[in-house]
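## retry 2 of 3
previous attempt timed out at serialization; input unchanged, resubmitting
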Amino acid sequence: MTKLLNGRVIAFFAFDIGFEVALEQLRELPSSAPVKPLSPKKQTPTFLQYSKPPLVVHLGEIKPILSEAGRAQVTVFDFGAASIAYQWPLPSGQQALSLADLQQLSRTLYGLNLEAQAKEQIQVFMEEIRSAIVRPELSPLVEDYYLFVIEEFDQPWSAADLLAGHGSAIAQVLRFETQPLSSEQQGEALNQRLSYYENDLVIVDWNAALVYDRDYRDTVNVLELLNVELLEARYIDEQLDRRIGDYQGLPLKRSDWSVPLRAPNRKAIQALAELRLESLVLTERVDNALKLIGDLYLARVHAIGARRLYLQDWESAISSKLDIIASLYQLLTDRVRATQSQTLELIIIILILAEILMAVFFY
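## retry succeeded, writing output
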C-alpha cells in the first residue's frame, strides 16, 4: 500500500469581519507577518503579486488529530475578510499513513466541528484588533475549505499513474467518504485538475482539494484566497437579497407622497445608493486582491478553482441583483423628481391665480 512520507492537512474558515482593515496597525502585533510574495512555478514570465499583501497572525498550537499538535493562524485581508487556518502535519516514519488511512482521516477531520472553534477564535481576535477595523461586524456566514497536501510518497508517482491507480481513493478523500463512490461521482470529484510536471498534481473539488507537490505553498495561498472570494460573494449576495426584500415595495406606497416639497423615501434612496456603491467597491477589491495574469500556473490554479466553486455563477447573480438595485434606485428617484416637479407646477399655478385675483380685486 502506498505510504505518504510527508504532507499535511489544512482546514480554512473564512469570515467577513467589517468593511475594511487597516493592515498597517496590525503589523505592531508581535506574531504578525505579511504573506510572502508568490513565486513563479519554475520558468514562467513575470507576473503581478498581491495588490495589498494580507497579514498573517499566528495564534499558537492546537490539539493534535493524529500524533502531532497542529498550529493555527489567521490571514487578514484589507477588504474586511479574515481566514483562519488549522494545519496538522501527517505522521512520518513507521506511522506514515496510506491513502486508505487518509480517507478515514478526511472523514474524522470533517466531523470535528472546527467551525465552532474558528468562530470563537475570530471573535476573540476581532476584539484585539477592533481599532483597526472600519465598521467592525462579524457576519454569520462562514465558508470552510479543506486541503490535503502530499509532498512525498514512499515511491515516485506520476500524476497520470496516481490518478489511474488511486483515483477512487482520492475522490473519497475529497468528498469525505469512507465508501467507494460511483464512477460518475469520481469523475466529477476529479474533473478540475492541473499538473505542471509529470510528478505533481492539483485536484480542486467544491469543498476540498488535494495538492501533490513539494512546492505547494503558493498553491495553498491561492486556494485560501479562492475560499475568501467565495465567502465575500455569498456575503454580497446575502446583503443584496435582504435589501431588495426591504425596498422592493416602496414605490407602491402612495402615502409617502402626501406631503408636498419633502423628499419621499429619502433614506431608502440613500441606502440603495450606498449599498450599490459598497457592493461594487467590495467586489472590485476582492477581484483585485491577487493579480495573476497570462497563462501561468497559479493563474490556471485560480481558474480551475473558480470553476469548481462556481464563482462565475455567483458573480452573475450579484450582477443581476445590482441591476435590480439600480432599477429600484432609478424608480424611487424618478418618483421624487416627478412629485417635486408637480409640486412646483402647482405652486406656479397658485401664484399666477393669486396675481390674477389681485389684479381683478385691487386694480
